[in-house]
Write a structure and sequence with these properties.
- It holds the Pfam family His_Phos_1.
- This protein has a six-stranded mixed beta sheet with strand order 3-2-4-1-5-6, with helices on both faces.
- By secondary structure, it is an alpha/beta fold.
- The chain starts with a helix and ends in a 9-residue tail after the last strand.
- Helix 3 packs parallel to helix 4.
- It contains six helices and six strands.
Length: 193
């Protein structure tokens, strides 16, 4: 009986030690878990990047307008982005990028802010967009360059000249982690309301 009590007591102590090891949370681990619970959508910064829609290649200017197909695509972008809670819209100052950005800016009732393709991801841009959901309309070369600058890596290459349907999503989490996604949206045959 004495040995049985000792064996049962030993098993009880061993199981308590095992349970204690499994449930051990250091203050560091608890703070990380608590911090993750406090991350809300408004604490992260989300960027949606698109290249301008189809431009008039026959125009004899360096600043052409969109074609009717390009306008259809711009309207399609507004529909695709309708549920993204866009708060700020940025564009370069070219007609084709402004015309691409306008339907989305109008849909979310905001004005278009401008950035220079030679000054990407500046401190001022970061300050204005921190914690917000942002649409950035650019060009075949500046869009991937801008994204790469945010990510701090050379992930995306120039966009093919006949490709206007790429949607790049870049998220910066409150803990500094960055992630990106590339999706492609072919132009619908008919854009409807």
């Amino acid at each position: 009986m004495k040995y049985l009590t000792i064996i049962l007591f030993s098993i009880f102590i061993a199981s308590c030690k095992q349970e204690s090891k499994e449930n051990t949370n250091t203050p560091e681990n608890l703070s990380e878990i608590d911090a993750d619970k406090n991350f809300t959508d408004k604490n992260k910064t989300t960027y949606y990047f698109i290249r301008h829609a189809e431009k008039d290649r026959k125009a004899e200017t360096n600043d052409p307008h969109l074609t009717s197909i390009g306008m259809d695509r711009a309207n399609q972008w507004a529909k695709i982005l309708a549920d993204k809670n866009i708060e700020v819209v940025f564009s370069t100052s070219y007609q084709r990028t402004i015309e691409t950005a306008k339907p989305t800016a109008d849909a979310v009732n905001t004005t278009i802010e401008f950035y220079k393709p030679s000054k990407l991801y500046t401190k001022e841009f970061q300050r204005k967009t921190a914690g917000k959901t942002v649409l950035v309309v650019g060009h075949s070369d500046t869009t991937p360059l801008f994204i790469n600058k945010i990510l701090g890596e050379d992930k995306y290459k120039n966009i093919s000249d006949n490709e206007n349907g790429n949607l790049y999503t870049v998220i910066i989490h409150p803990n500094g982690r960055k992630e990106s996604l590339l999706e492609n949206f072919p132009l619908s045959q008919k854009v409807t309301d």
